[in-house]
Amino acid sequence: MLEISQLTKRYGQDDPVLTGLDLTVEGNSVVAIVGASGAGKSTMLRCINRLVEPTSGSIKLNGHELVGLKGAELRRARRRIGMVFQGFNLIDRLSVMENVLAGRLGYVSLFQAVTRRYPQADIERAFQLMERVDIAHYANKRADELSGGERQRVGVVRALMQEPEVLLADEPTASLDPRTSEQIMMLLQSLASELSLPVLINIHNVSQAKTYTERIVGLRHGKMIFDGRPADFTSDALAAIYGGIEAAQDEPPAPPATTRKHEAPHEPF
Ligand SMILES: Nc1ncnc2c1ncn2[C@@H]1O[C@H](COP(=O)(O)OP(=O)(O)OP(=O)(O)O)[C@@H](O)[C@H]1O
Q1: Residue 104: which pLDDT band, with cuts at 50, 70 and 90?
Q2: CATH for 2-242?
Q3: Which of 11, 170, 263 gets mutated to test ligand 1 (max ligand atoms within 8 A of its CB)?
Q4: How far apart are CA 32 and CA 172, in angstroms?
Q5: What are the pocket residues of ligand 1 if the criterion is a CB atom closer than 6 Å to any ligand atom?
Q6: How far is the CA of 201 from the centre of ligand 1 (A)?
Q7: How would you class 110 by CB atoms within 10 Å of its CB: exposed for 0-12, middle for 13-18, buried for 19 or more?
Q8: What are the extents of the domains in the chain?
């Protein structure tokens, strides 16, 4: 179970990017995090895997506090958090298998990692997972010879090799065509259920969020303003999250014609 309470993040002296966020995700729940560009979605995921240090608040993964961890403790905690990226983050010149086994780096010794002598059990698990997502036949191919969808499957398997207790996906489909995006969303949904893994997905595509997740969390200006089932994500909720002008709350709303390009949401539909 992931329990976030009163999470606040401020970069430097700037206004907080996340303010007093509370979120609990249990079991095999798949949660979409939606919000306009700059709402704080990536910052939230980065606070969970501690790529950024929360300013205050608590993040517990199965009862263990993640905030404030350092050194070896932080490295151990990070092993339990799988991450899938928009740009896949594969090492192009390495094979699919080598990329997948990189998910075990937190568990093997430096000698095993450098000499690529991974335990047999890791190799077997890698094949099982690659078979599960239909990329086993590419095991020896270079990662850069794969299509985007295949590369994202490698990214997913690498994250699962960590035996994570939660899976975070930051815009996992944003670089993929619509059909491949849907396949990846479907895959994340099935894996969550097969592996009893909570999955949090930052996503701009609201229609995919509604179809492939069971809960939608909407952020606006770093505050959670919607938390509910896709069926309850009405046009009012959509307007509250994306609508109008992305002005700070204490500023008067600008007329629609003056909407600034950088404030527009990324393809919310
Ligand atoms: N390392 C950083 N230093 C300073 N400000 C940052 C940093 N990372 C993000 N921000 C700021 O925090 C705010 C939230 O950014 P974040 O990337 O979390 O939003 P997002 O909702 O994920 O946006 P997008 O959908 O465009 O990825 C933005 O105003 C951004 O400029």
Answers
A1: confident
A2: 3.40.50.300
A3: 11
A4: 11
A5: 11, 17, 35, 37-43
A6: 16
A7: exposed
A8: 2-242
